[in-house]
Each structure stands twice: as structure tokens, then as C-alpha cells.
């Protein structure tokens, strides 16, 4: 069974899977020019999830506290075992979350209080499919 990434990060996300990168080991030998290379296969592929988080609570402080709870819960995914996730018809198997970061906007503001009572912030999360 898989989990939609929207169930974790909300609806305001963009997801892209980067191409696999090949891992090679190079070795040189005394007195010889050049190196030999051993192809070690790929080390999975990176999945980048970016978007906006939002929370409400009636006041800035209540909404900001609710948003911090969401951020704290997302941080815990970095400690999860590999699992299967989906997004827009794509399935990502054996995925672990490597890094979750809050991003500032162009004006270096981290959190915004909207006229509708939401506190929002931008984020980026790096995950890796292990296969």
C-alpha cells in the first residue's frame, strides 16, 4: 500500500524525480597513466518535493504554533523506514526522506500571516528512492 505525498505535505506541492546518478570507483596504478573505473551501479534517485505549508488558528500566534506542529511532524519522516509513495500517477518505491528545510521568500521572510488568518511558509524536502 502506498501513501500519496499530498496526504503528508498538503496540496500545494511540486514533485520531481531526478535521473539516477551512476556511482563509479576509480583506481590508478603506480607507473601507469590513466585510471581504471569500476561501475558500481546507481544509488537510487533523488525526489524533490517543494511547496507551501499553511495553518490557521484565529490569531497569528495560534496559527504559527499550529504550523510549527506541522513542521515538527514532517521532520519526523526523516526517521521513517523506506516506504512507497505516490504523486500524480507516479509511484516511488523504497523511499526515505533525507532532508526537510524551510525556505525564505525573496525578501528573506520565513513565515507569512495572510489576510484570511493563515500562517504560511515555503519548504523543500529531499527524498531518495533506494532502488
Q: Fill in the CATH topology.
A: Elongation Factor Tu (Ef-tu), domain 3
Radius of gyration: 20 Å
Q: What is the CATH architecture term? A: Beta Barrel
Number of helices: 2
Run of helices and strands: EHEEEEHEEEE
As a percent range, the share of helical residues equals 10-25%
Topology:
Layout: E1 3-4, H1 5-9, E2 13-17, E3 22-27, E4 36-42, E5 45-56, H2 60-75, E6 83-87, E7 90-103, E8 112-113, E9 118-129
Parallel strand pairs: 1-6
Antiparallel strand pairs: 2-5, 3-4, 5-9, 6-7, 7-9, 8-9
Task: Kindly list the characteristics that best describe this protein.
Elongation Factor Tu (Ef-tu), domain 3; 2 helices; 131 residues; elongated; 7-stranded mixed beta sheet; two-stranded antiparallel ribbon
Explained architecture:
- With 131 residues, the protein is α+β, with helices and mostly antiparallel strands.
- It has a single domain, classed as Elongation Factor Tu (Ef-tu), domain 3, CATH 2.40.30.
- Helices cover 16% and strands 50% of the residues.
- It contains 2 helices and 9 strands.
- It has helices at 5-9, 60-75; strands at 3-4, 13-17, 22-27, 36-42, 45-56, 83-87, 90-103, 112-113, 118-129.
- Strands 1, 2, 5, 6, 7, 8 and 9 form a 7-stranded mixed beta sheet that branches.
- β3 (22-27) and β4 (36-42) form a beta hairpin.
- The radius of gyration is 20 Å and the shape is elongated.
Amino acid at each position: 500500500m502506498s501513501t500519496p505525498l499530498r496526504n503528508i505535505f498538503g496540496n500545494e506541492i511540486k514533485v520531481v524525480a531526478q535521473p539516477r546518478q551512476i556511482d563509479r570507483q576509480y583506481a590508478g596504478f603506480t607507473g601507469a597513466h590513466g585510471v581504471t573505473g569500476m561501475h558500481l551501479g546507481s544509488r537510487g534517485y533523488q525526489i524533490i518535493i517543494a511547496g507551501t505549508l499553511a495553518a490557521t488558528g484565529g490569531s497569528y500566534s495560534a496559527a504559527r504554533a499550529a504550523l510549527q506542529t506541522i513542521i515538527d511532524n514532517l521532520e519526523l519522516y526523516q526517521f521513517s523506514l523506506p516506504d512507497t509513495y505516490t504523486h500524480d500517477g507516479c509511484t516511488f518505491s523504497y523511499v526515505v526522506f533525507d532532508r526537510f528545510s524551510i525556505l525564505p521568500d525573496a525578501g528573506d521572510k520565513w513565515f507569512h500571516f495572510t489576510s484570511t488568518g493563515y500562517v504560511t511558509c515555503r519548504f523543500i524536502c529531499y527524498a531518495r528512492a533506494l532502488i
